Amino acid sequence: MDLREQKYVCALADCGNLTKAAEKLYISQPALSIYITNLEKNMGIPLFERRGKKFLLTYAGERYVERARKMLELEREFNDELIDLIRERAGRIRLGVSQRRGAWFLPPVLVRYEEKWPGIEVILKEGNLAITQEMLKNNELDIVILNEKDVTENMESRLLFSEEFLLAVPEVHPLNEKAEYVPGERYRKLNPEHLDGQTLVLTTSWQSSRQMADVILKENGVTPERIRTVRSVETCLQLIAEGLGVGFIRESFAVNMKYRKRVHYYIVDTEQHKQNVVVAYKKGAKLPGYMEDMLLLLEERGKEFLL
Fold it and tell me: Which domain holds residue 177?
């Protein structure tokens, strides 16, 4: 920013003397005199009243100086901010995430991050996959949390955690008796053929959890007696808890969603339907140190998230 005009006028107003103002500005007295005279001619109105060697502000000069000082203050603030940006003490991160996953995953990360980087503004953008992918493509986001299978060729990604796709069963239900222990797994296993003839509570067809459920049902030739379709994962789980059917849910949702009636969770496919959740950013992007630190904190959170 070049506010030489404002600096010259304010310096002369402060000093009230051409010689002193020139010394303060490290320029010659004639040069300052010519500059002020030409400025007043161009503006069409005098800013100073000359009384011998004294320069006194006219009314127009007072109004000019009032605004000039505000401009100079803005310049100082900007220069301070610019120094912080150069030293990576200031900046912003625009982070995209689904509303449900963000509610459970991000708050502890933000607490840790803001303690370490108080000068960095973190802007959360909540939306579905299509919205966040488009925003990242259009440079409206810096990083986005999504499922690994949804990472496109113009993204780079880092693993946060891997989660199971679980079957949720009411506490009192015949299927619980058919569950089998699987060595090394956190959950017991139910063979998917046991779902044949059952009432299922599933999300809508355009939701990724429903698409995964449909693959499992098709691969195992399952024909349910009835399907209750709801959009909300929370509603889906509450219906299951009340004994109105069984259904599928991501492990991260199961860990964080609670209900007064107990729900049992089982794996139905040990490997095929595990899912990796990642943090992604634009391929080839040069990430500043404060953004790299955010990625590290997200990775740390991922390691503890399902424990």
Answer: 165-267
Structure tokens at 36: 């002020």
In tens, the pLDDT along 204-245 reads 998 888 999 999 999 999 999 999 999 999 999 999 999 999
- 58: domain CATH number is 1.10.10.10
What CATH number is associated with residue 144? 3.40.190.10
> CA 27 to CA 82: how far, in whole Å?
27
- Report the predicted TM-score, pTM, of the whole model to 2 decimal places: 0.68
- Tokens 């605004």, located at residue: 67
- For residue 278, what are its two tokens? 């990642």
> For residues 150-180, b (16+ Cβ closer than 10 Å) or e, as one string?
bbeeebebeebbebbbbbbbbeebebeeebe
Strands 199-202 vs 263-267: parallel, antiparallel or unpaired:
unpaired
The C-alpha atoms of residue 21 and residue 62 are separated, in whole angstroms, by: 17
Query: Could you tell me which residues come within 8 angstroms of residue 130 by beta carbon, excluding any fewer than 6 positions away?
Result: none
Considering only CA atoms, which of 103, 143, 127, 291 is closest in space to residue 151? 143
Higher pLDDT among residues 87 and 58, named by residue: 58
DSSP 203-221: --TTSHHHHHHHHHHHHTT
Which of 68, 86, 104 is the C-terminal boundary of a domain?
Answer: 86
Each residue's pLDDT tens digit, 82-126 = 765 666 667 889 999 988 888 889 999 999 999 989 888 999 998
Whether residue 199 is found in the same domain as residue 55: no
